[in-house]
Amino acid sequence: MSTVTAAVRGVVVAEEVYTIPEAAAIKKVSSDLIRRAIRATEGNTLAAKKVGKGYRIKASELDAWFDGLDDA
Predict the structure, then answer these.
(1) Whole-number Å distance between alpha carbons of 27 and 24
(2) Would you identify the CATH topology of the domain 2-67?
């Protein structure tokens, strides 16, 4: 787990970012489901940034994706 900081109109905003395994553990889903959501081109996709060989997912993006999943 890492923190990303950005200045928005002079205010520093920090947000947690996660790797695929961290995101999967937080939401109690498989890493494969997270990977498929990142690669998806339609429907409920998950935005992520490629960093080296892995991905980083903002906490807000992970929450929005998870909230958009269909209820069982």
Answers:
(1) 5
(2) Multidrug-efflux Transporter Regulator; Chain: A; Domain 2 (1.10.1660)
